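#struct-pred

JT: dropping the chains for the assembly here, can someone run the whole complex?
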Amino acid sequence: MEKTAHDTLAAKYGMWFFLFTEILFFGGMFLLYSVFRSKFPVEFHAAAKEEDLFFGSLNTAILLTSSLTMAMSISAVRKGNNRLSALLQAVTIVFGISFLAIKYFEWGEKIARGLYPNSPVLVKMDQGTNLFFGLYYVMTGLHGLHVFVGIVVISFMIYFTGTGTVTSQNFSRLENTGLYWHFVDIVWIYLFPLFYLVT
Amino acid sequence: MKRETEGEVHIVEYRTYAYVWVALLILLGLTIAVAEMEMSKYSVIANLLISSVKAILVLTFFMHLKYEGAFLRRLLITVLCVLTFVIMLTFSDVWYR
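RK: done, full complex below.
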């Protein structure tokens, strides 16, 4: 029992250490964004108008709700209700896929208008606008990749929850998956105002 | 939180999570409203502050920091201080170049 408790703690700390490296990873990109924004405030302001506020807000709401179902799935498993937990995890995945689907249409719409790095349309425009869209694709792209990884990991967790590997006494895998998912949510919480809100 | 409570089982109620979720959605509405008002230079600060409140809510409840020992919280604060320091250092170069 003593050993199990310590392993759980070590697993949790391990996950947090990984998330700290992720904070610095995304932090570097946020730093790049803020430096260029301070250099090209007018261009960034104008370029943010190209973003679709409705889809951006909808995606934020979707991701926040997916965090709710993820958090609830851990409570469910700890209460011994694996069935409900697996269902909540599946709902989380559905939200995650919806997020990526909306992202796909947003990117597609922008690419159709010629707003992609090094496109003939953007090359003719100023440096600030080019930097804005470059950062937009890199940052939302890497965030989207994190969402995709999260979906894959949660899929495994549904399997573990179903087979009884994850139980009310042994749930650290699911808990750590939750930590990762919430972290990805927090990254989006900051990406949303920086790219979608014309401030 | 004392040392003996670390790793202790604490099950968060569904209701608590639901309240946090409602608060997050209200803050999302608020951040959009602030942006629509176009207060120019203050709205960036306002939106980043609202985002930080949202992030703190997620960290505290969804990521269980409220129920963890002080160790993890101190580590997180250290990491955020490192990031802040790097940002300040960069801007001290960018602004006074």
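JT: nice. Chain B is about 75% helix and 0% strand. Chain B touches chain A through 47 residues (CB under 8 Å).
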